Amino acid sequence: MAVLALVSVNWLSRVTGRGAGTVAGGRVGLRVCPDLLEQLSRRREIICVSGTNGKTTTTALICAGWGVKVATNATGANMPAGHVAALATTRATRVALEVDEAWLPEVIRRCSPRVVVLLNLSRDQLDRASEVRVLADKWRAALSRTTTLIVANVNDPLVVFAAETASRVRWCDVPTTWLGDAQSCPHCTRPLSPEGSTWHCLCGFTRPVAATTRLDGEGLVVDGAPVGLTVSLLGDFNRANAAMAITALREVGVAAQEAAARMTTVTSVAGRFSLRSYRGQVVRTLLAKNPAGFSALLDVIPPSPGEVWVAINARIADGRDPSWLYDVPFERLRGHRVRCFGDRKLDLATRLDYAGVEWRLDDGEIEVIDETLYLLANYTAFADVMEESTPC
Amino acid sequence: MLRIALLYPELLGTYGDGGNALVLAERARRRGIDVRSITVSMADPLVAADIYLLGGGEDGPQRQACDLLAAGSLASRVADGAAVLAVCAGLQILGVRFAVAGDDAYDGLGLVEATTVRGSRRSVGDIAVDVSGRTMVGFENHGGRTKLARGVAPLGAVQRGQGNDGVNDGFRAPRLWATYAHGPVLALNPWLADEILSEAVGEELEPLASVADVLYEERLGSVMARRVG
């Protein structure tokens, strides 16, 4: 009955053009049957993916790597309403769910997943989400009560803090660049001293040594065995996402090398990393919503000179406060010319101006360049770009 | 040589607060002033500087920063003539007491007779404050309610948002500015940056036109329009 209501509302939502048809029905379904998520999760093999950055991509990599039909919340509806909507419409028994960081404890309790992947944790949309250490505390409390396997990034101190009390953890030593929220110890707030590739605090909090997955310049090693990894998506952070996806899939019986091979077919995820024609210009679209995400993406932009396009909004889904622009190391774009787009292009231009980066405001007049430009956009700005562009 | 010290960004830097140091340094440099930007980390001594900047932070880091500032005698640096801009948690630290998780009355530095208690709900959104006839715009996100003792001047009257108590925002004392407008408030209000710089260098500054002025006008229009609407 609840599933019928859910599916009907989602169909209505889609045909009336009011939405993508995932969340509204999920809400109705949960209203009719509050334990719908528990019911739909039964007898299913579920992998949950959470973290500030890389959730959607890692979930897509897990789906591709599994090699069977996988149910997933592919539209990014990553709260319980989206989860029930994803599960109600399929009989697939394998499931990969992207989970909002704040909802993770509840989703673990209700879905009893086989595996939870914790990618990273840093500041994001602070006007509507919890401060990052509050989130880490909530994760820690939830994870200490579960026997689910946790696949956790050992280089992110806040993730280690969250996962260190879990009964089963596979630590993944993967490249992690932005640690602006993990300079002080999550236990005692004293400084975390880096020491080579590890870190520790006077209180005893330290980086676990027993990583079973390691990804570095030499390649990927999982449980002592090298795994050939060719990731079609840009950036070291996507190689890290793939390494963690492969580790998660091992728990459900997928061989690492086979999973890795299947993942190479993923070339873009929900428009991210894809080539589009935007206002006549060929651009590669990159989604970056917060300092850590932006920092990782600035690394993949080729050295100057050249033009880079950046679009910034501050609508509700973005967080209404673009203060975080000052946590992004835009100084790295010195030598580039940046064209500023979006509702908050003046905030961006001011940030770039103080960073010593050449900028111009988008004035609607584009001289098309015969090369592919990088276009970085935050959440709703990215959605606007996708709507106003075509694949190429 | 103008020394601008950003204090403990790893503790007090939740919302791009480092932007204030960048803005002050750049606006001074563009006027030909010799600037030294200093980042003071937890392990460093509290070095001498002409302007100190305190940002926002979560409860644990706020307490830790307060202890470091007490040990490093920020108070005596201020007594010696240094200027301070403190936002959000930084504002609370400068007062006599503030509330954090686990302690409703943690001792602040006591530079100003201001006491912060926990409010019934968080104040999140745009804020506009009348600072001596000019409107300062910004964004606030805090759960504190700050009470100023008699004789302590607020930074200004709240035109939109909550500030200390829905009436006033922050406080103002000689060479000391404090506001709940968090993060890079000086990026949004270039005139306020120049007011602080001018006082720190002890002279009037040449006007400095930049896109920041356009941003200020745009934010001012947006924030005040919504107040009426």
The counted number of beta strands of chain B is 12
CATH superfamily grouping of chain B: Class I glutamine amidotransferase (GATase) domain
Q: In the CATH scheme, what's the topology name of the largest domain in chain A?
A: UDP-N-acetylmuramoyl-L-alanine:D-glutamate ligase
User: How far is it from the N-terminal to the C-terminal residue of chain A, by CA?
Assistant: 43 Å
Instruction: Supply the CATH class of chain B.
Output: Alpha Beta
Main β sheet profile of chain A: 9 strands, mixed
Residue stretches of chain B low in confidence (pLDDT < 50, at least 5 long) are none
In short:
The complex is a heterodimer of chains A (392) and B (229). Chain A is α/β, with parallel strands linked by helices and 392 residues long.
Task: Describe the fold and architecture.
The complex is a heterodimer of chains A (392) and B (229). Chain A is of the alpha/beta class. Chain A has three domains: 32 residues, no CATH class; 229 residues, UDP-N-acetylmuramoyl-L-alanine:D-glutamate ligase (3-Layer(aba) Sandwich); 117 residues, Alpha-Beta Complex (Protein-Tyrosine Phosphatase, Chain A). Chain A contains 13 helices and 18 strands. In chain A, strands 2-3-1-4-5-6-9-10-11 form a nine-stranded mixed beta sheet, sandwiched between helices. In chain A, strand 9 and strand 10 form a beta hairpin. In chain A, helix 6 packs parallel to helix 7, helix 7 packs parallel to helix 8 and helix 9 crosses helix 10. The longest helix of chain A is centred in the middle third of the chain and has 16 residues. Chain B is an alpha/beta fold and 229 residues long. Chain B has a single domain, classed as Class I glutamine amidotransferase (GATase) domain (Rossmann fold). In chain B, the strands form three sheets. Chain B has a six-stranded mixed beta sheet with strand order 2-1-3-4-12-11. A four-stranded antiparallel beta sheet of chain B has the order 8-7-9-10. In chain B, a hairpin with a 2-residue loop joins strand 7 and strand 8. The longest helix of chain B is centred in the C-terminal third of the chain and has 18 residues. Chain B is globular. The N and C termini of chain B lie far apart (47 Å). Classes of the chains: A alpha/beta (392), B alpha/beta (229). At the A-B interface, helix 7 and helix 12 of A face helix 1, helix 2, strand 7 and helix 7 of B.
